[in-house]
């Protein structure tokens, strides 16, 4: 039966209701999903190792004849071992099968099989325990290994993929034009899909993978380029004169060289006829806001309005406070507008924005609502913190006549990833912390030292200092929330009895959050129990200690971000990562945290360990998850795809030519699938 790519998976031969449910668990819902459900690894059964050459401890594939029928031996109740000898003419190898009478019965004397597994045994005899076994005939190939779920093995998925391919291969239509395939040496889509699942050899797998990675990156790049071209356009909004030195002169501190350099780069952009599109990267506390303020100041002196958009109300409020400190002695007028601003006040603010009375508006998403108008919006700052979608950023950009934009990013993004997310957006880096900061000391410990840690925290509280305890909770969940409340109550009634313990979580109303944060800032709360919302919390220089519970559940970049809440004052700060995780990777990750406070290093390690999909949570970028491409390993293909995207856009900006129709559909579908999505316009 022929099928469409969007046919429900349950109609594929061999699937049915129960397996369909299991497949859904793997996010496979349609025939197309299954064909694009790529193996996570491969087993090479095409390379046969002679028994004589098989190396102890290594996994290999042996092709051998069964010498004798397996013999059964009960070693204890419920455990039967089947043993037999096999030979390939070079040597003999002993095969052990556990408990499976069925597998043992297949091994008939004199027949030839493939045995895939790890070689063990002593100096003289070679052994393989519980190998995978297949008939020799037709078995010599590379086998796909799929992500599995309980009740659905990789081998079953393999069969289902085969029948899906048979039923729907004609529906796999080519998205890449002939000229692209020729120029970049790419195989056709049908070959690619077949060979990514069932490659005959490593070469064909390589070709298939290259083609699919290229296509994925090309489509992503085309989508992002569509957005970028829109924001990068000629503008009348030019700085006639630079006032940033005047601004820096008014500050109580000297800007760092990095701050001066980044400001100069941005001023140069903003003085030109093409609107600025710049990313300002800098570790927590590196002073990004001061750079943004210098630019806001210059813009205001040139008669242009600015907008600063933050991902949360708490952070918007913090920016407002920071700006207040910066602008109090100047004539720059500014206001804060967030979701919890009262309707009447909002109306008032909107009026003043439209009349040009306000130079700077600071806020959350409320700023991108349709009825917010500006008189002369010239400069837009988004404090990224990886919470914004590409789309939201673009919308605010539409409010003015191609205003200059600056994206502030606290977690340093590895270059390759930045290239993909932001296109060829210009980048300034604040790679220097203001003087006088002591780096945070970090320790990773296990739960048995909990009491000691509590005492250590109390010692600091007794000295009038403050601290955080972070719980890894999903902010939305009701039950988790109850758990946070319980945890905080447990502490204030138990280990921290007599201390002032507060609780902050994502489900609190803006005003309540605000109150807790300001109580903490004022010292009325000594110990703040919090979910990850404090990731973007206010600066409290007196907070010098942070305990992170179940630290293994956080990404490295997130731990780094959290840790950035302390070490903001003159006192030495300590971050304690509590985890009972046993697995080596989790331990390695926490170890990295204890070894460096360099955000770039941490970001790179994070990307290596977790892959870009998980890097910050791809949803937060508005970036769709990558199915096959790897930002680090595929950086060469990434460059080629970027080059190809440029060529395609130059020749056909709206992707309206027939040969690009497939690409256009793919680009639109890709972004439509993500909640913050956006596609190529027109
Ligand atoms: P970021 O946004 O990069 O995390 P901020 O701009 O919020 O950093 O700066 C952190 C703190 O350091 C603020 O209190 C700010 O006033 C202060 N600061 C910024 N630049 C300097 C500097 N060059 N010297 C001393 N303090 C600075
Ligand atoms: Mg900041």
Summary tags:
binds magnesium ion, alpha/beta
Structure write-up:
With 682 residues, the protein is of the alpha/beta class. 40% of the residues lie in helices and 18% in strands. Helix 7 packs parallel to helix 13 (390-397) and helix 10 (288-301) packs across helix 11 (313-327). The chain is built from 24 helices and 22 strands. The two termini are 38 Å apart. Magnesium ion binds next to helix 10.
Topology of helices and strands:
Elements: H1 16-25, H2 31-35, E1 41-44, E2 59-66, E3 71-76, E4 79-87, E5 92-98, H3 101-106, E6 112-120, E7 126-129, E8 132-135, E9 142-145, H4 154-168, H5 178-183, H6 189-197, H7 202-231, H8 244-249, H9 257-270, E10 277-282, H10 288-301, E11 305-309, H11 313-327, E12 334-337, H12 343-355, E13 360-363, E14 377-383, H13 390-397, E15 404-409, H14 415-422, E16 426-430, E17 441-445, H15 450-462, E18 466-470, H16 478-493, E19 501-504, H17 510-522, E20 527-530, E21 543-548, H18 556-563, E22 574-578, H19 584-595, H20 599-610, H21 612-615, H22 618-621, H23 635-651, H24 661-672
Parallel strand pairs: 5-7, 10-15, 10-16, 11-13, 11-14, 12-13, 14-15, 17-22, 18-20, 18-21, 19-20, 21-22
Antiparallel strand pairs: 1-9, 2-4, 2-6, 3-4, 4-5, 6-7, 6-8
Helix pairs in contact: 6-7, 7-13, 7-23, 7-24, 9-10, 10-11, 19-20
Bound molecules: adenosine-5'-diphosphate and magnesium ion (MG).
Adenosine-5'-diphosphate (ADP) is lined by residues 253, 255-256, 259, 282, 284-290, 322, 410, 434, 539.
């Amino acid at each position: 039966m022929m099928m469409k790519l969007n046919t429900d998976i349950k109609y594929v031969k061999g699937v049915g209701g129960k397996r369909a449910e299991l497949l859904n668990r793997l996010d496979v819902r349609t025939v197309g999903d299954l064909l694009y459900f790529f193996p996570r690894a491969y087993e090479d059964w095409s390379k046969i190792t002679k028994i004589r050459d098989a190396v102890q401890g290594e996994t290999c594939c042996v092709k051998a004849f069964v010498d004798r029928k397996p013999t059964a031996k009960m070693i204890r109740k419920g455990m039967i071992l089947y043993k037999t000898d096999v030979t390939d003419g070079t040597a003999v190898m002993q095969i052990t099968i556990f408990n499976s009478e069925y597998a043992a019965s297949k091994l008939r004397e004199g027949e030839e099989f493939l045995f895939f597994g790890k070689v063990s045994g002593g100096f003289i005899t070679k052994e393989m325990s519980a190998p995978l076994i297949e008939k020799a005939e037709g078995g010599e190939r590379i086998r796909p290994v799929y992500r599995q779920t309980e009740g659905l093995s990789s081998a079953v998925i393999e069969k289902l993929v085969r029948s899906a391919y048979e039923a729907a291969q004609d529906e796999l239509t080519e998205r890449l034009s002939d000229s692209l395939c020729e120029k970049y040496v790419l195989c056709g889509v049908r070959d690619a899909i077949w060979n990514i699942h069932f490659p005959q050899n490593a070469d064909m797998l390589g070709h298939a993978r290259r083609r699919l990675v290229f296509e994925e990156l090309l489509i992503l790049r085309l989508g992002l380029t569509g957005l970028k071209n829109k924001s990068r356009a000629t503008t009348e909004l030019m700085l006639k004169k630079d006032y940033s030195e005047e601004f820096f002169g008014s500050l109580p501190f000297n800007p760092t060289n990095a701050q001066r350099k980044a400001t100069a780069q941005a001023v140069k952009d903003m003085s030109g006829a093409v609107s600025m599109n710049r990313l300002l990267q800098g570790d927590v506390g590196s002073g990004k806001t001061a750079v943004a303020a210098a630019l806001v100041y210059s813009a205001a002196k040139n008669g242009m309005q600015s907008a600063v958009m933050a991902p949360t109300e708490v952070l918007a409020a913090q920016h407002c406070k920071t700006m207040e400190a910066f602008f109090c002695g100047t004539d720059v007028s500014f206001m804060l507008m967030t979701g919890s601003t009262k309707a009447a006040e909002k109306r008032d603010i909107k009026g003043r924005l439209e009349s040009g009375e306000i130079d700077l508006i600071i806020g959350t998403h409320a700023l991108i609502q349709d009825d917010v108008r500006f008189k002369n919006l010239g400069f837009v700052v988004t404090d990224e913190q990886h919470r914004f979608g590409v789309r939201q950023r673009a919308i605010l950009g539409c409010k003015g006549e191609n205003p200059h934009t600056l994206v502030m990013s606290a977690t340093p993004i590895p270059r390759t990833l930045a290239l993909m997310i932001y296109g060829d957006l210009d980048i300034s880096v604040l790679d220097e912390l203001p003087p006088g900061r002591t780096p945070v000391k970090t320790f990773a410990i296990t739960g048995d030292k909990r009491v000691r840690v509590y005492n250590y925290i109390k010692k600091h509280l007794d000295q009038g200092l403050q601290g955080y305890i972070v719980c890894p909770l999903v902010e939305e969940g009701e039950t988790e929330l109850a758990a946070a409340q319980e945890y905080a109550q447990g502490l204030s009634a138990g280990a921290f009895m007599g201390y002032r313990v507060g609780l902050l979580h994502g489900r609190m109303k803006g005003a309540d959050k605000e109150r807790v944060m300001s109580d903490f800032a004022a010292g009325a709360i000594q110990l703040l129990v919090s979910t990850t919302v404090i990731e973007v919390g206010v600066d409290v220089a007196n907070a010098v200690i942070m305990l992170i519970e179940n630290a293994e559940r956080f990404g490295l970049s997130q731990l780094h971000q959290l840790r950035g809440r302390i070490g903001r004052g003159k006192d030495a700060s300590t971050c304690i990562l509590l985890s009972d995780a046993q697995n080596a990777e989790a331990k390695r990750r926490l170890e990295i945290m204890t070894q460096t406070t360099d955000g770039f290093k941490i970001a790179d390690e994070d990307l290596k360990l977790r892959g870009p999909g998980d890097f910050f949570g791809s949803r937060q970028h508005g970036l769709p998850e990558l199915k096959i491409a790897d930002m680090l390993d595929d950086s060469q293909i990434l460059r080629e795809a970027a080059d190809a995207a440029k060529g395609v856009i130059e020749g056909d900006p709206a992707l309206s030519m027939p040969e690009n129709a497939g690409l256009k559909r793919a680009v639109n579908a890709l972004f439509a699938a993500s909640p913050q999505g956006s596609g190529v316009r027109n």
